[in-house]
Amino acid sequence: MRIGTLHSSFGRLGLVIVACLFGLNARMASAQDNNSPATPNQKWNYDEISKAPEKSRVRQNPFESDPAAIAAGGKLFERNCAECHGKKAEGGKRAPSLLRDEVQRASPGTLFWVITNGVVWHGMPVWSKLPEPQRWQIVAFLKAFKSTATPAGGPR
Amino acid sequence: MAGHHPFPSGPSAPGGIAKLGVFSLVFALVRKNFEAGCTPHSLRIVFLVFLGFVSSSLFCPSSFAQESPYIVTYDHYLEEPGSLDVEYFSTFGTQRAGNDFHAFWVEFEYGVKAWWTTELYLDGQTTFGDSTLFTGARWENRFRLLKHEHVVNPVLYIEYERKNGADKILKEVEGVDVESDFADSNAALRQEHSNELEFKLLLSATYRGWNFALNPLAAKNLSNNPWEFGYAVGTSRPIALKASPNRCSFCPENFTAGVEMYGGLGDRYHLGLHNTSQYIAPVSAWNLPSGWTLRLSPGFGLNGNSHRFLLRWGVSHEFSGFSEVLGHFFGGRQ
Fold first, then answer.
1. Which phi and psi angles does B276 have, rounded to 5°?
2. DSSP 8-state assignment for residue B62
3. Coil vs helix vs strand at B234
4. What is the pLDDT of residues B229-282, one digit of tens each?
5. Sign of CA dihedral A117, A123, A129, A135
């Protein structure tokens, strides 16, 4: 075997992967700047809210209105949720806005249930890999949009 | 919220250190491969890893990855849809009646759907005092079976492997795999080739921050060998369950620790622990805000058929929105 045989199938596969990583990611920023609202086919995400069982719906957030928890929730949201829901929770191509009434009117327990279970068949993964306190911190952050009355920019 | 910006951004110093570490590692690997008299295959795999990490470092936006610390065991959490996780792992192993080895593999893990993750592995190894070679490729798929979270969550794992006898990554232990299988020279081991199908049922539960995972496995060499069986079991927990409000690399919630145990269970004709190898390994992971994850796991053989010591470590980086990038490139809908 000679070292110069990079034209093999293995070499080609490697070059395709590297090309994808190299040349294409420059376009990634524009894909992520999308501020478009949720599309009609993302309605299922809002429908899922109504499916939360009663015992989950009535659960109280142990961190409700806790400023430190809201700040921590913002950090967690940026790390785990903003990629699909947008940096300001305004929604994107892959996931709907979280600023809408359907979400803002939902109880903390309902939001916790949706985060925990995801909407797996429609693209949202389960987030139970985040420990329970962290999921409540995200809920506190989401509910703070409503209480601060700055829906476009989120809590500051 | 005064005083807190909910969306902090910017690179972190440990992220830069992680990248530097990866580059240093790959350069060291290239140099070692040249010294060891490498084959073209091994050179290509190192070349791929190097370019992959360079390109990700230069061009890709980072995405925080909440990765588990396990090396062998799987929990039920799949890759986020549209994200590509590139991972590099190393295993240093001691060998009685033979030379110690350093096996390595790279993984490209892609979230096709929230219920389906697919993964390509390329692996190789260096046996000290012998040679370095490419040892095989694997294509793995994991399918989530249930819509919602339950007490125990099942995921179906199906893998096709095409590898040679010199494969030493010990990504799973099955049947009567034992240490003495690795004692022959690479020249002899690479003459054996196998096509194998492997099935696992990944059972995983998370309770009060603790993850518990059990992975029974069944593997079939397609060249008329009997079914072989094995298992992996693990538990892990983040150091802190509550997140701190500050963006930080060293926050306790970024660290996860646990332990895993794995080994063979014999084959269809000799089911049980007799003549199998068994391992126990503490595991740890550090999830950096910059999107990098570092893992470290020293492993210990539990019987005379096992390698006495395995040191495993890995580094991974997640590219977010990879599917959209591909869509743009191939002229998909805007």
1. -110, 165
2. B
3. strand
4. 999 999 999 999 999 999 899 999 999 999 999 999 999 999 999 999 999 999
5. negative
Cα A4 from chain centroid? 45
Q: 């389960």: which residue's tokens?
A: A126
Query: Could you give the C-alpha distances from A6 to A1, A22, B33, in angstroms and in order?
Result: 11, 18, 17
Which residues are paired to A77 by β-bridges?
none
Q: Compare CB distances from A3 to B9, B40, B322 and report the shortest one's residue.
A: B40
Identity of the residue in B6, B66, B86 whose CB atom sits nearest the CB atom of A155 = B6
Say if CB B75 and CB B213 are below 8 A apart. yes
Q: Residue holding tokens 């990866």?
A: B22
Cβ–Cβ below 8 Å for A78 and B7: yes
ipTM score for this prediction: 0.81
Exposure class string for B98-116: b at 16+ Cβ within 10 A, else e:
bebbbbbbbbbbbbebbbb
Do A60 and A143 meet the contact criterion of CB atoms below 8 Å apart?
no
Residue B35 CB coordination number (10 Å): 10
What is the pTM assigned to this prediction? 0.81
> Mutate which of B42, B62, B80, B323 to test chain A, going by most A C-beta atoms within 10 A?
B80
